[in-house]
Design goal:
The protein is of the alpha+beta class. It is built from nine helices and ten strands. α1 packs across α2 and α2 packs across α3. InterPro entries: TrmB-like, Tscrpt_reg_TrmB_N, WH-like_DNA-bd_sf, WH_DNA-bd_sf.
Length: about 240
Amino acid sequence: MDEQLFAGYLLHFGLTRQEALVYQKLLLKGKQTGYEVAKEAGISRSNAYSSLAGLVEKGAAYLVEESAKRYIPVRLEEFCENCIRRMKAEEEWMVRNLPEGQVDEEGYITIEGEANIRDKVKNLIASAKERVYLSCAVQVLGEFQNELKQLASEEKKVVIITDGPFGMDGARVYLTEDKGKQIGLITDSKYVLSGEYGKGSMNTCLYSGQNNFVLVFKTALANEIKLIEICRGEEGR
C-alpha cells in the first residue's frame, strides 16, 4: 500500500496528516491504546493522544472504555460515506441559502493542473443540455466515459474524435491521427475548453464562452470531421 497516497486522500476527508497516519495504524492493527499507537506510528504520546482525540471528534474512531482506554477505527467505507453524506447536505444548504449573485465566466479563463482540467471537463459534459463534441487521445477517453455514457443514454448528441478504436452506444465516433496531448471540448455550442491534458503534458487549457472563440473552435472541429469523412470515402474506393 502506498501510505503517502493513502494519507493524502484522507486529507480530503478533513483529517490532518498526523491524524491520517494514526488512522491508518488503527485500520491496520485494530484496537490500540494511545501508547501503542505512538509506538506504532513513531510519534510522541502527546501527539498520539491529540490525534486520537481528533479522530474521535471527526467520526473516524471510537473510544473503548476498558481497564486502559483503547481506540478502534470506524470502518473506512463508513467514515468516508459519512463525510460525503454530511458534505452533500451542507452543499445543499449553502446552495439554498446563497444570496443571488452572478458568476462571471466571461473572457478567457486559464485552467491549470491535471485534476482541475479533468474536473472541468467532467462538469461541462455532465451539465450539457443538448450536445457534446470531444476531441482527445483514446487513452484519456476512459476518464470521461461515465459522463459520456450518461449523456448518450439520455439521447443527447455525443460526438467523439479520437485516435484509436473506441465504441460507445449512442455516440458517433470519428477515428483520426494521433491526438498527442491535445484535448478539445465544446458543449451546446456555448462553451469551449481547449489545450493540453494528460500525463507528461503542460496540463494547461483555455476555457471560454466567448462567441468568437466558440465559433472558431466549432468551425475547426467541423472541418476536422469533414476531412475525416473525405478520407474515409477515399479509402473506401
